[in-house]
Amino acid sequence: MGFRAGHEVDQMFQLGVGLDWRTKSGNTTSLAHSSLGPGGETIVTQIEAAHFTSNLLPVLAYAQLSGPARRIVPYVGIAGSWQVLFLQADDYTTGQRFDATYHNGWGWQAWGGAGITMVGRTRLISEVFMNQGNVGRDVYDPYYGAVVRETISTDGFGVRGGLSWGF
Fold this sequence. Notes:
Layout: E1 2-10, E2 13-20, E3 22-36, E4 42-66, E5 72-91, E6 96-119, E7 122-141, E8 146-153, E9 156-164
Antiparallel strand pairs: 1-2, 2-4, 3-4, 4-5, 5-6, 6-7, 7-8, 7-9
């Protein structure tokens, strides 16, 4: 999910800022047992061993180039970004909780898409994008007896759609 706001320098070039939000979560399960139930149905009992969530927030400064104003308007864009990642995890077998914020993540994004003009300057848009970057944090590691740098790659591809309108 995201939001971009910009100024049209002319009908085909825009400069602006934006904010994206990517979230994902998951869990790790282990098989406790399985049994044969009524009617021959297999009943599987699983134990949830761990759960994680991550939320990535890239803040963008972008430039976008569009085709001429027609029914279908193609466009491409590129952005520099500062990214922060919030990562939480619970290990239910050990009772340990992990909660960390990774920041100082400079990166970039590129996208291409098309908008279908609906009414006036309102368009229905669809685009593919690529995000590149790394986020990190400094932590004390008792094994090494020193502060170490942990990093996470935020590289990835995605698809997004939405509504675009001008004033």
